[in-house]
Amino acid sequence: MSYEVYWSPDMLEQLQRIHDTMLDQEGMRNTVTRIELELRKIPHEAGESRDRGRRVLFKFPLLVWYRIDERLRQVIITDVRPFGI
């Protein structure tokens, strides 16, 4: 069973700002697709566990913080930042 990945309007706006600064915008879009696929299928394995039920996923060129709502079968993106650039 898969999970729904939820990006709030603020997170989508933040992601767009990062995208607009990238030289390889197509690569960035591919990374977002890979992130979403992993989070839909294996959110507990995709990232590293952090405090208070948060997880972090490093996928160049992004760092994505998220939490998993098992009841709703949702992965909620709580922060996204550029990573390794």
Spell out the blueprint of helices and strands:
Layout: E1 4-7, H1 9-21, H2 25-41, H3 43-46, E2 48-49, E3 54-59, E4 62-69, E5 74-82
Parallel strand pairs: 1-5
Antiparallel strand pairs: 2-3, 3-4, 4-5
Pick out its properties:
single chain, alpha+beta, 3 helices, 85 residues, YaeB-like fold, 5-stranded mixed β-sheet, 5 strands
Please state the second-level CATH architecture: 2-Layer Sandwich
Determine and state the CATH class: Alpha Beta
Which band does the percent of strand residues land in? 25-35%
Number of strands: 5
Give the tally of structural domains.
Answer: 1
User: Strand arrangement, largest sheet?
Assistant: 1-5-4-3-2
CATH topology: YaeB-like fold
Structure, explained:
It is a single chain. This protein is an alpha+beta fold and 85 residues long. It has one domain: RelE-like (YaeB-like fold, 2-Layer Sandwich), CATH 3.30.2310.20. Helices cover 40% and strands 34% of the residues. It is built from 3 helices and 5 strands. The protein has helices at 9-21, 25-41, 43-46, and strands at 4-7, 48-49, 54-59, 62-69, 74-82. It has a 5-stranded mixed β-sheet with strand order 1-5-4-3-2. Strand 3 (54-59) and strand 4 (62-69) form a beta hairpin. The mean pLDDT is 95.
